[in-house]
TrEMBL record, chain A:
Molecular function via GO: ATP binding; proton-transporting ATP synthase activity, rotational mechanism
Principal cellular location given in the protein's record: membrane
ATP synthase epsilon subunit C-terminal domain span: 87-133
InterPro entries referenced in this protein's UniProt entry, alphabetically: ATP_F1_dsu/esu_C_sf, ATP_synth_F1_dsu/esu, ATP_synth_F1_dsu/esu_N, ATP_synth_F1_esu_C, ATPsynth_dsu/esu_N
Protein name according to UniProt: ATP synthase epsilon chain
Pfam families for this protein: ATP-synt_DE (PF00401), ATP-synt_DE_N (PF02823)
Family of the protein in this entry: Belongs to the ATPase epsilon chain family.
Cellular component GO terms, alphabetical: plasma membrane; proton-transporting ATP synthase complex
From TrEMBL, chain B:
Principal subcellular localization: membrane
Gene: atpG
Keyword set, alphabetical order: ATP synthesis, Cell membrane, CF(1), Hydrogen ion transport, Ion transport, Membrane, Transport
Originating organism: Candidatus Desulfacyla euxinica
One term under GO cellular component: plasma membrane
Name of the protein this chain belongs to: ATP synthase gamma chain
Domain of life: Bacteria
């Protein structure tokens, strides 16, 4: 099977840059997989799990929002933040979820920025928890 | 003429000053390394982002998003102005402020109101004291800037723009060119000038991309991020420039201290020699008088 080059880039640093067999990423319209020879492709990225496999090794990353480009067997994923799922701090994520829930309960239904921000925080925390519970 | 003791005290003082400037020089050098590293690690992200955005822009209608549309009447614009929080960095801050004032005067002559958002204490204090119209300020944020903080700033800017509170947004920051050169730079943030697609043949941009959602949807997601990228870049550049400017300024100051110590030591030795000679003359004169 042919190889793809995957790059996961955040504003702070290049998280991943290596040859892989397959990439599965959380797109705006659902999860998508990329193999060698994929057509040029652009997609938004939603908070979720990014997987890629090389040989029989699979690695998982948690990513936040961003977008990705597939071109000429190169996959570039640009996200605000990414971390290895094994390095997720479950305790912190739980606390963040609690905080976000509280805030949401306080001013339910408001369309203001705080509400939207809390909602986004809740979403992130839930993704973290879901993913890290799955692997442990 | 200063007495021996006065000169001695002065030499001591200058030496102490030199210790401080030397220490600050080294601190600035260490911080500069950190800032420069952050700047370099942002590079891949920024480059890729510009590439994709340019690619998308070439394939959509330029007026699909309000952030792309020029407003017809411009009566008030916002300036995001960067300075440092601390002084002792040569003409770094005054260059930035001069640049801003020159530009603001120009705009005012055209009948445009200006609201300022000041990043950095130096600029904020300056503009506040002189009664400029401050929309907001961010103090002591360098070093702890991350993308979510930048997100907040840019969201504020975009909200104000969409609510017609301002009709354009610009920023002035110091661009880091080299250790010896940092240039205050004016950049237009909003409305977004449609990014120019690079040479299509060269980049292979004419390859048909499959887009999810559609190109328009993607563009709408990317545009606010485009502002983020630019502001984040300004933060990094400005911080790096600040440390480079401080390093140069402190290096100069240390050298001036050296010169000062040298000339003071010379004066001290001269004065001492004069005193010794005078005393000797006295003794010789006294002895001669006794003999006589």
């Amino acid at each position: 099977m042919g190889k793809l080059h995957l790059e996961v880039v955040t504003p702070e640093k290049v998280m991943v840059s290596q040859e892989v067999d397959i990439v599965v990423a959380p797109g705006t319209m659902g999860e998508f997989g990329v193999l060698e020879g994929h057509v040029p492709f652009l997609s938004g990225i939603e908070p979720g799990e990014l997987r890629f496999a090389s040989g029989n090794q699979t690695e998982r990353f948690l990513v936040t929002t961003g977008f990705s480009e597939v071109f000429d067997n190169k996959v570039s994923v640009l996200v605000d933040a990414a971390e290895k799922t094994t390095e997720i701090d479950l305790e912190r994520a739980r606390k963040a979820m609690e905080r976000a829930r509280e805030r949401l309960a306080k001013d339910r239904g408001g369309e203001d920025i705080d509400f939207l921000r809390a909602e986004a925080a809740l979403k992130r925390a839930m993704v973290r928890i879901r993913i890290s519970e799955k692997i442990n | 003429m200063a007495t021996l003791n006065d000169i001695k005290i002065k030499i001591g003082a200058v030496k102490k000053t030199r210790q401080i400037t030397k220490a600050m020089n080294m601190v600035a050098a260490a911080k500069l390394r950190g800032a420069q590293m952050r700047m370099e690690s942002f590079e891949p992200y920024a480059t890729k982002f510009a590439e994709v955005l340019g690619n998308l822009a070439s394939r959509i209608e330029p007026d699909i998003h309000p952030l792309l549309v020029k407003k017809e009447k411009i009566s008030r614009v916002e300036l995001l102005h960067f300075t440092s929080d601390k002084g002792l960095c040569g003409s770094f801050n005054s260059n930035l402020i001069n640049r801003a004032e020159k530009w603001m005067n120009q705009e005012k002559d055209n009948g445009v109101d200006i609201g300022l958002t000041a990043v950095g204490k130096r600029g904020r204090d300056y503009f506040k004291k002189r009664g400029y119209d401050l929309i907001g300020s961010h103090i002591n944020v360098y070093g702890s800037v991350d993308i979510s903080f930048v997100n907040q700033i840019s969201r504020g800017i975009i909200d104000r723009y969409l609510a017609d509170e301002v009709d354009g947004v610009y920023m002035i920051y110091s661009r880091f060119i080299s250790m010896g050169r940092q240039v205050p730079t004016l950049v237009k943030l909003l409305p977004i000038e449609p990014p120019v697609a690079e040479d299509e043949e060269a980049s292979g941009a004419d390859a048909e991309y499959l887009c999810e959602p559609d190109p328009e949807g993607l563009m709408i997601e990317l545009l606010p991020k485009h502002i983020n990228v630019q502001i984040y870049n300004a933060f990094l550049q400005n911080e790096t420039s600040e440390h480079a400017a401080r390093m140069a300024a402190m290096d100069n100051a240390s050298r001036n201290c050296d010169d000062l110590v040298e000339s003071l030591t010379l004066a001290y030795n001269k004065a001492r020699q004069a005193a010794v000679t005078a005393e000797l003359m006295d003794i010789v004169g006294g002895a001669a008088a006794l003999k006589g």
